[in-house]
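PROTOCOL LOG
Step 1. Enter all chains and additional molecules of the complex.
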Amino acid sequence: MIALKRIALICVLLVLAGLVGCSSSSTHIAYVTLPTSNSIAAFRVSNHSGKFTPVVGSPFAAGNSPNSIVLDPANKFPYAANQTGNDISLFKIDHSTGGLTEVTPRTPAGISPVALAMDSAGTFLFAANVSSSNISVYSINAGTGVLTEVSGSPFPVSPGASPVALTVSPSGKYLYVASSTLGVVFGYSIGSGTGLLQQVLGSPFAVGSGPFSVAVDPTEHFVYVANSLSDTISVLSLDASTGMLTSLPNSPFTAGTNPVSMAIDSAGKFLYVANLGGNNVSAFSLDSTTGVPTELTTPKSPFAAGTRPIFATIDSTGKFLYVANENSRDISGFNIDSSTGGLTNGSIAASVGSAPTSVATTTK
Amino acid sequence: MKKQLPLNANEVHAFLRRGTSNAILLLILLYVTTLSTFSVAQQIPRVQVFGGYSYTRFDSPTLGFANRSNLNGFNISPAFNLAYGFGVKVELTGQYGSKVNLRDLTVGPQFLYPRGSMLFFAHALFGDSRSFVRVGTGEGDTARAIVLGGGLDFDISSRFAFRAVQVDYVHTSLFSTTQNNVRISTGLVYRWHTIRRKGHKPTLSSP
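Step 2. Run joint prediction.
Step 3. Record the structure below.
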């Protein structure tokens, strides 16, 4: 009978075996815009390894040429700027599956919206309309995600300015817009509660040639601009009380070939720049006092990426840098050394089938 | 030397943490242990039809899900035993969850060993699995399935037995990825005819 008890125990163990594995590793989700296929690819990403697992059903149907994607702070609503659709798509995330469902109707924008930015509170969404040279501003319904264009929107930038990139300062007080054709950055104050844009004193601010990306450091002391045609990074100090920008004495600083996208880590210690023409990523340490970027020498920057890296972002864990490669149609995944800022691995995290232009990651 | 199985809680926990490969090993051990422990063999039914409840812990993170999925459904499996201790089984299962449905149709050999009022069995089944996932507009796929498992039946009457537990490791290759699932079933078995070992008389009545 002892043997029988053992067998019965084995049976119980087998039953329990079905329950083992209930624990799940923590993950988040990455969404990648694919304009040429009018879709958005979705991946489950391991917080531990950064490994991408395609979400079944991905890519999901989106608007016409979704070029840029951002997420609200609550991770409920992704928004995509549809460049040829001249509108904004709102999606809902099914966090259990990673799936996306578009909420229609789409919200009209200006002509050729190519970039989106949202304030950290998730109150307003800003769209850069490259062909109509203006900025559309929307208030966000926190419950439904529905966009409502604010009074006075769209706000004109400047004739022929062709705004291609924009970012909101961490405090949510200022919006900075890069004009690739004029070689300047426009600065705006954002009306609290209204979203009304007003140019700050001294705007626009001169930068290098072909500015294609703009970023503000987490302490809101410096603005960084990637000048895609002059292969430099402009650094401007930010007056937090007025939003005015002043170029650093030695700015611009040498960068890689055709820098087009930037990502700053949450501590403000490191800056990563995707070099479209160099097929690599440059890494810089940032001086917290002066804001001066110094390219890493150990390990040596730049780091190889795919072909024509066009977008860089640091994921919500802060451990991984993801780079969207336009011509190789994939996403490079780098491990970030939090102490040195160096990048390792750099393997292909995912192939996406068509040219990716933007990546957004959830925080959970 | 007598073989020791993990009997205390720590051993059991560590054992289970090693994953589904250990479940397969356990099944083999189950079969070997029963063969080596019991010297008294009796009789087995010629035909069995099992029907009952089934639960699957589906490996949905391979499809991009945040967690594994709990699926509930049915298991129907007729079996025809060709000889004492050996037969052929067909198994049809349907498992349903809020986001995933899974249906398997598999066939393969089963091995049986009776002991008193109990009948131990193990099987290796091969076939297809069909899944439908409710993500976006919905996605379906059909792929190969391999089922390795076993269980234990208790006699209720000459015709019926209660399948106390059937545990299966279910390997599927849906949506171009590989899933390692665990399935548990329980229910009733209806039986016809008997096959007896040499020197033993049947106790199950034949129709």
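Step 4. Note key features.
Chain B has a mean pLDDT of 83.
The first helix of chain B runs from residue 9 to 17.
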